[in-house]
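$ ./design --mode recover --in tokens.txt
reading tokens...
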């Protein structure tokens, strides 16, 4: 089920940049595994061995990605972020009623949304809510305390929009691929450092020792720089996709009947509503609130017409 959802989301038009970077990452993992394992295994280099080792790397990457997208992966992230399952009690009955109302509306809009989505709570004053994977919606203490029931409905409808579109899938896949590339970066840097020490120790002159250290420092710097540029490029591509996902999740909330509630929540959350400059927008996962509010108004007008 998760692989089908993952591949389906991979080919959504608005996720083109994110998918492109994921495919580039996968290709890089393929070549790194192909060269590295062929070299270190002592095998005689041939195309077949290279391809087999590369495919092993891609399979490992895919397996870890699917594990991250599974309930096990979600549980791990919830534990890492210290969120708590919100039990149904007298104190939480109100937020649970809101959650169930929005859940039912989201299911009516998209029947393919799972039946096992649970509400979780994060004890922080940050006013926030977010979806995780396919089964988790998280609200913060700050959100519950600062917004009225209708606003919370709009925010939750937006998060169900992310679940409906599987927006976290590609981001998790890229995170896994980047982690594998980070491991390779560390290994390559260790190898460079080792050889620089060998060069220094093998030389009987101080100049040889200095040359070895310079070689090591420059090598480690260049490898780390390349990895940094590569992941920075990925961040920009992921952010561009994420901003489109926000508009789509807003539209989902409108279509579920909670557009005005979401509009009021965003309007209250961002009191300044100043337009971001180009460079700050590139680094942001969310569009300008001004533009989001405008898009919601347009969607509401279309629905009314």
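writing sequence...
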């Amino acid at each position: 089920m998760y692989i089908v959802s993952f591949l389906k989301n991979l080919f959504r038009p608005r996720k083109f940049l994110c998918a492109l970077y994921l495919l580039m990452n996968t290709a890089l993992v393929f070549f790194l595994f192909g060269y590295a394992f062929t070299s270190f295994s002592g095998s005689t280099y041939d195309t077949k061995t290279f391809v087999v080792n590369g495919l092993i790397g891609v399979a490992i990457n895919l397996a870890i990605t699917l594990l991250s997208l599974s309930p096990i992966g979600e549980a791990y992230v919830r534990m890492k972020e210290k969120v708590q399952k919100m039990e149904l009690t007298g104190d939480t009955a109100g937020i649970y009623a809101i959650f169930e109302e929005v859940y039912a509306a989201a299911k009516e809009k998209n029947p393919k949304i799972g039946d096992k989505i649970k509400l979780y709570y994060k004890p922080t004053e940050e006013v926030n809510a977010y979806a995780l994977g396919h089964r988790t919606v998280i609200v913060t203490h700050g959100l519950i305390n600062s917004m009225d029931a209708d606003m919370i409905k709009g925010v939750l409808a937006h998060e169900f929009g992310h679940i409906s579109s599987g927006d976290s899938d590609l981001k998790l896949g890229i995170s896994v691929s980047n982690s594998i590339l980070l491991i390779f970066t560390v290994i390559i840097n260790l190898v460079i450092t080792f050889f620089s020490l060998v060069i220094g120790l093998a030389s009987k002159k101080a100049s040889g020792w200095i040359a070895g250290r310079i070689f090591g420092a420059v090598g480690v710097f260049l490898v780390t720089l390349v990895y940094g540029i590569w992941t920075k490029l990925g961040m920009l591509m992921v952010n561009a996709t994420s901003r489109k996902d926000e508009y789509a999740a807003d539209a989902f909330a409108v279509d579920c009947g909670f557009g005005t509630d979401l509009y009021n929540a965003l309007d209250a959350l961002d009191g300044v509503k100043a337009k971001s400059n180009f460079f700050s927008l590139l680094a942001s996962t969310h569009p300008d609130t001004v533009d989001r509010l405008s898009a919601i108004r347009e969607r509401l007008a279309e629905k009314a017409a």
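exit 0
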